[in-house]
Amino acid sequence: MKTIIRKYTILDYFILVKYKIFTLFFLRKARLIRTPIFVRGKFLIDFGSGLTTGRSCRIDAFLTNDNLNSQKIIKIGNNVEINDNVHIAATDRIDIGNNVLIASNVYISDHNHGIYKGIIQDSPLSKPNDRDIYSSPVIIEKNVWIGQYVCVLQGVTIGEGSIIGAMSVVNKDIPPYSIAVGSPAKVVKKYDFKNKIWISVSHD
């Protein structure tokens, strides 16, 4: 079995110590928070324990007239690992389960400027920033792995143990124990627990 062997230089250890000291002050129950990190609405976020982040992550929990009485609108489970340049933004609810691994440059949002389906829709002649915010919860269940450059959009649930391939756009629910790829993301494999293998899914 292949595993990554981490070899650190003296400078690497110095930087890790600096991050660890910052972590103890910023979020004591986290494992390691790398700076810079940008957090808005920290009081609306439950970080869980054992969190690891990469550099330049941005986590926005926006206070709105709809969530004034909410306890937490972003909930991050235990032992979650978030890599560099991840942006998570919530006005309603984003739940990330235990042991989720998120690669670099991932965007996860539960909201959108304007509405573009149904009977009443926003006009392209209006200013995007003047349009009402529409939101619906994002749920990422435990043991999910999200690949590089993935975009997870509002109202989506990613089922337990699933894998989202790099550069995918997730705009619909992904069932548990699936591998999904593409834009929009489609399930290409499902795990067969009886035979302990991933089985390809046909889209004919």
TrEMBL record:
Keywords: Acyltransferase, Repeat, Transferase
Stored Gene3D superfamilies: Hexapeptide repeat proteins
Domain of life per record: Bacteria
Keyword field contains Plastid: no
Pfam families in alphabetical order: Hexapep
Protein name per its UniProtKB record: DapH/DapD/GlmU-related protein
